[in-house]
Every structure is written in C-alpha cells, then in structure tokens.
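The step that takes the researchers longest sounds almost clerical: writing a folded protein down as plain text. Below is the pair of lines this work produces for a single protein:

——
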Amino acid sequence: MNVTITENPYLDDIEVSVACPRIDERAQRIVASLSALDHQLVGSHDGTTYRVPLDDVLYIEAVDGATFLYTANAVLETPLRLYEAEDRLSGTEFVRASRQMLVNFDHVRGIRPVPGARLQLLLDNGEATVASRQYAPDIKRKLGL
C-alpha cells in the first residue's frame, strides 16, 4: 500500500491518497467487465457477416484452424483466433473449458463430473460439452467451489 500526503498551498487542508494494488486490480476488472457489456463479436455464415451480441454466444470453438461462434440458432465463423477471443472477452462470463473451447458461463445450466477428472457442462440449449481436467479447477473456482 502506498500513501501520499500532499499539502495544498491554496487551502488549509492536507490531501491524503492511498494506492492499494489489490483495490486497483479489482477496479480494473470491474471497468473491463463494464466495457465488455457492449461488446459484440463478428461472425459470418453463407457469405454474410453478422454482428453477434456476447449474450447470444453459447460457446466459441476452434476446429481445424478455424474459429466458430455457436449461438442457439446458428454457427458462424469468426476471423478471430481462440486466444484473441479469450483476450477480448477477459472480464466477461466466458471461461476456458478446453484447449479448443471458451464457454459462456451465463449459458451453463448444470455441471456433472465425468471420468478422468473432467466436467460435463450442460448448456441451456440442451447441448453438453466437456471441460478438460486442465481447466476444471478454473470452472470450479468460477462456481465458488
């Protein structure tokens, strides 16, 4: 914690400012999540490019060198690499589920353990996906477990 004391020559007051790295880090995360609220991703389908609100994206998956956005009604290809999408979505409800997938935690309705220390994520559209054991602890932390 850094404390700075400065005297204001025009007033009879003394200013005290406190810098706390932990609070600063939390404030930065809050600002990042607020700025992410108006984020949209770009995806294309059948030659048409669409702007897709983050709330509509269930998960993002990398397959054979291409990255896809999955919504309840469509699959769109995005020009972003998975790591670029992850960077852009930091501070949101997207969480890494495997080397190939990011999942929007707002669309996860249930979690079930599966053999191999993995987790099955049940999505609100009826689909299920598996989180690898490498990323299972992050998902458990997200749940508060």
About this structure: The longest strand covers residues 57-63. The mean pLDDT is 82. Helices lie at 21-36, 82-88, 136-143. Residues 21-36 form the longest helix (16 residues).
